[in-house]
## 1
Amino acid sequence: MQTQGNNMDPWYGLYAARTAGLSASEVRALFAVASRPEVVSLAGGMPFVSAIPKDLLTGAVERTVRERGATALQYGSGQGMPALREQILEVMALEGIHAGVDDIVVTTGSQHALELVAKLFLDPGDVVLAEGPSYVTAITVFKSFQAEVVHSAMDDQGLQPEALRETITRVRAAGKKIKFLYTIPSFHNPMGVTLPWERRMEILEIARQNDILVLEDNPYGLLYFDQAPPHAMRSIEADGVIYLGTFSKTLAPGFRVGWAVAPHAIREKLILANEAAVLSPSSFSQTVISEYLGSADWKGQIDTFRGVYRERRDAMLSALADQLPTFSWTVPTGGFYVWLRLPDHLDSKAMLPRAVKELVAYTPGTAFYADGSGRNAMRLSFCYPTPDFIREGIRRLAIVINGELAL
Ligand code: PMP
């Protein structure tokens, strides 16, 4: 069966059908362009890891090699290091989650947890409900298991409960099987918005009534700028929620350490799937992180990140107000992203080459939908460039957009 690629690829006819969804995303292509130093990239979601003082980590790395090398350099448990899992409990308690050390499965970033959950639950033709828009690489994972991603509408307070009810009814009326709802309730990627407490309760109730599992992805919850967001959905409901956390945003993504918290039966299968995929998550990374959490002021470091990102968010919002005063955008109270809405007739994907010519990059809204929606929106990331670069980037973006409007 011919599924993917083109005739230049000698293996074209051999790929599995599931690879059809693995076409290079807009985001990937952008990374190449936007990494040129003269381009202000508002496209990627790279954490500003230079904000971590080097000696906070060098001690942890050195102790890992010198004192804990026998285990840190060895294969480990498919569930992850018990000592690190204990510390993860402390991290999650900050978001109201109370779990046991055995409830946690350490994964290779939360990205791999997404892959494992998809592998456990998705057969071809199954439906995954997701916010519209949703995290691009989660959509890619679900599609790679030949699931259909059905988006449900959001507003500036996240997923709309009423729309979710209607989406479930519509999907079921079409005879399709819904496996889970994938949601990013706090500082959403890509919209930047946060689901209020009452909606969290309501959405969990809808999921319960409809026997739908909730997959709660929470990489940004601790990166709030003023007030903490409402507690995680997993803090309300333990049985019907798989919760994903990560050290990628509160420490550094290079470690590739995240985790899943899942109800007992699912957790056992997750551990087996983790072993089948990687034998054990990196012992070295887990040990360094465990040393770091045990010795450094990690809460203070998260505070430092909050300050850095708050300043960048402020720079972006004030630049947008100066440069594009008649447009609308979301106002994130944490995380990395602003969602900018364009007039209906503008197409952010078609505009991108002109933006790159003006030396600014962003992610077109279409990247965050499985169904081609999102043309008249874009995601702007404020996590990586300095405030001055952000202001310059928005100035260049306004030139491009105003040029389009003048056509
Ligand atoms: N989920 C969301 C919503 C994300 O934004 C990201 C990273 N951009 C991930 C998961 C993956 O994070 P990691 O694998 O680094 O933990």
## 2
Amino acid sequence: MTHGSGQSPHRSGPTEKCGVVGVALDDRAAARPLYYSLYALQHRGQESAGIVTHDGFQQHDHVSMGLVGDAFDEADIERLNGESGIGHVRYPTAGSLDKSCAQPFTVSFKSGSLALSHNGNLVNADEIRDELAGLGHAFTSDGDTEVIAHDLARNLLEADLVRAVKRTMSRIHGSYSLTIMHDETVLGVRDPEGNRPLCIGELEDGYVLASESAAIDTLDGDLVRDVEPGELVVLHEDGSGFDSYQLVERENTAHCFFEHVYFARPDSVIDDELVYEVRRELGRQLWDESGIETDVVMPVPDSGRAFASGYAEASQEAGAGTEFAEGLMKNRYVGRTFIMPTQDERERAVRLKLNPIKSTVEGKTVTLIDDSIVRGTTSTQLVALLKDCGAEEVHMRIGAPPIVAPCYMGIDMATREELIAANQDVDDIRDAIEADSLSYLSIDAVAKALSRSRADLCLGCVTGEYPYDIDGEATDREVERPVIEGADLAADD
Ligand code: AMP
């Protein structure tokens, strides 16, 4: 879902960078495994958490603002009866602390009940909402998840589950990894471009769908595989297996590279790649492309760690005497600085969050490694901090290309005006952050580390060209945006 960045050409709604999960078990309540999986996916969203279960007769739900640990107490879990269910954690965005956008979203209609958890962002939600509103559907939020729910509910009046999902997929355009519960049946759907992750896991007594495999590990399950782009997975109600329907096929995918660079947990496997290994490989590529010999190389914790370890390893293999050092300590009780509403607060928060170990940097030349630069707040603060601590030189190396354009596909990035690389070249940015040198990774190195061609990645934030048809933005491929207003009803089932 999108939120009013002031930049987006779309009606504002909350930006969704979320975690989704779904579970179907044999003879065991689904609520507790769902709760644990949401804990494992907490990094994907801290604003609200919710679970909806179905006991064969009716739905039970508990959706609350806050972290998973605060959103549920024992009594809430006990009340969530049923052996199947779905869950959601939602990412916070300044100004959108609004319960109407918390998920899973639920709706009852003539042929049953639906609950939906969505990670991603539709770019044509307004068109579909307008059409459905004209047909009498009443909307309670401005979010795109509700649009998917209403569209699916309407299609379910005329078609079976698989056809109804296919019809909805033919109408919605954008990124979506969904877990859905129709009565007690749990489904998973991944958009035809595979933009956001979704995977299937096997438990002793059932199956699970989750944004990331770390959630499956937490339940002592085994990762079966990723849900394929354009695939619908239907979990058997008795936990005995799942059915797969490849509903839409595209020549190319558009996997979000930033999931691997920043967003996902390093211990998750996404699209067959362990995120930790991808980050280490990105670090190695960074050394190959722009390595510089300094006394120490240190990560910006936590996200820079795997990059710095790969970078340091490659530098040592190349005979450079660069020592890996953890020179910045992180206060783990400070939340994400990124979402602080003002620049002043963001700067203070970086200082609250990270503190250098003086003896590691004093009198040394330092290479500082981070996964990305967005507004430039973190790097500016850290370069100054390390110099204050006596670093002789500070060289920044970044494990991603410059972020030059906003993300419309579900990662809360900042607006074009706020992005430091949107209108400045690397030399200007180096001057702005006062580093002795600055290098980013190339797009080709990212594709190489991910073992994919550029044509199979969503690179919108680093190229300004998107794999979806977004109003006012360029595309990087032939994209067909569905024509709304009746045309879908004639869609080929
Ligand atoms: P900035 O300080 O604005 O340049 O942001 C860069 C820092 O924020 C880096 O340390 C990244 O690890 C982190 N970061 C990058 N993207 C995001 C995001 N979408 N949400 C929160 N933090 C991010």
## 3
Amino acid sequence: MPNTPRPKVIVTRRLPQAVETRMAELFDVELNLTDTPFSQEQLADAARRCDVLVPTVTDHVDAAVFAAAAEAGRLKLCANFGVGVDHIDLHAARVAKVTVTNTPGVLTDDTADMVMALILSVPRRLGEGEKLVRQGNWAGWSPTGMLGHRITGKRLGIIGMGRIGSAVARRARAFGLTVHYHNRTRLPPSIEAEMEATWWADLDAMLARVDIISINCPHTPDTHHLIDARRFALMQKSAYIINAARGEIVDENALCEALAKGQIAGAGLDVFEHEPAVDPRLLDLPGVVLLPHMGSATFEGRQAMGEKVIANIRVWVDGHRPPDIVLE
Ligand code: DGY
């Protein structure tokens, strides 16, 4: 509903205070003060009552939600707080004639930093070392204590060389890793040369060759369970897998089995297949570092994501094409 002076905006979770304040100045905003994720009924109710819905990754904005919106005929923009949109049924959004936007770019560095932190943590056993000290079990330095594996000189295989994958590659180069990548489209030669990156058209061949695998692609029907039991079997026994993208890209059951069988050496996970549930088998495995989906969790990043949401809504209210269109 462009040119509406104060559109009704419903935000499903608490956002940074400054973002909420600015939204209240600009829009007729309804906040979820409890910060508890909406049920499907609450989401459908919100979709009936607003012009703009601001969901997050914890919402399942499914076909029923868009059907409710279409029936009421009010919702026109779904301005996601986050870059990944796999929790939004884009086909149903198109049918309901709802535009979808996201927040790309502003969380690239933070997420790449988190990937790098996991790349450093898993082979060097930071999780185990930290636990040892905290639990009072550290008996002091020893020549053979807490040995891990050197990062320098290892081969990193990046799946998905978009914004975040490229930012990971640049960081990895500084740590002496060699960069390999699998992407549908090959990078321009000048960028490949800058990163000294090797492109693998064949994902299976890359997986068999690299020491550390970093998943940085979006979750789509094509990438669902991209890493499954067959692909774990291709990896080296000394390989580590890092996932700060989406849990559903990895078959978590196959991952647990691969770790338990020693098919791979370890995993660094910031995301899980059934968040916030974590497969209990992962909790007891030593070569695993687990984080609670915090790749973009910086004050600066979340503020910038909120500003992007606001910018997308404002441009749309003014009757123009929002800058971060996913679907229109
Ligand atoms: C993102 O932006 O996709 C983060 O994972 C949070 O949703």
## 4
Amino acid sequence: MSLKIWINNKLVDEKDAVISVFDHGLLYGDGVFEGIRVYNGKIFKEQEHLVRLYESADAIRLQIALNIEEMSKAMNETVKANGIKQGYIRLIITRGIGTLGLDPFICKDASIIIIADNVQLYPKELYDKGLKVISSSVIRNHPMSLSPQIKSLNYLNNIMAKIEATDSGMLEAIMYNHEGYVAEATGDNIFIVKNGTIFTPPVSSGSLNGITRATVIELSDELGYDVVEQNLTRFDLYTADEVFLTGTAAEVIGIVEIDGRKIGDGAPGEITKELKDQFFKYASGE
Ligand code: PMP
């Protein structure tokens, strides 16, 4: 079935949703984006995603012609037009059409693209079995280079780590920061469980301020777990009782092996499973 794509203020057929080869989003990865889930026809954490999008845009001095309310309307229209009840929205803002030079301010209007579709990041069975991952040798972007908190169209840093994972026969890689502390996975935040306490690296360690991460911290709190945001080392991962990832596309998924070391008993742990179930319940409005 052909999708209806929102592009530059209207919905068009997928085949007509095209952008210029002079768009700086294509030429330079100059732009920002969001990935957002739809559960039971409702956009999950819509406001939080929109705020993060506009903050990313501000950080790169990208002006978006629509305000947050107008963007929300456009997203909801796109979801409706595609009949999406359970799915995923990709919201993309590119710098727009410019010249072959870098100058972003030559580009007149940012392009707005909204895609509403389905997504399956990891195979379904791995939510029960857990993921095996490697530590990447690719260091997460230094915050003084390109802040990992900007959800930019430049994902090459993460893609380099993903290539390393794929080359090792794995689906995912853990990225460390310039000081050797754990940052995040290529498209997800990371948590560990040790002796009943939940730990996650602070956002300042070089990760995106994940919206699923924040939700899982809140749910953990409600369930009575202590959540500690502190720097984690590779040793902490290797010796954790449980490790799991969180992200919009990934949701909550257990990790059962890192660099050939088995985590816990080699299956997703009890707290991981509890949080995964709670997350699904919460997201689907139960
Ligand atoms: N880190 C990176 C690099 C990501 O791309 C994502 C996915 N947006 C996340 C973490 C998870 O963030 P969220 O829970 O907001 O999707």
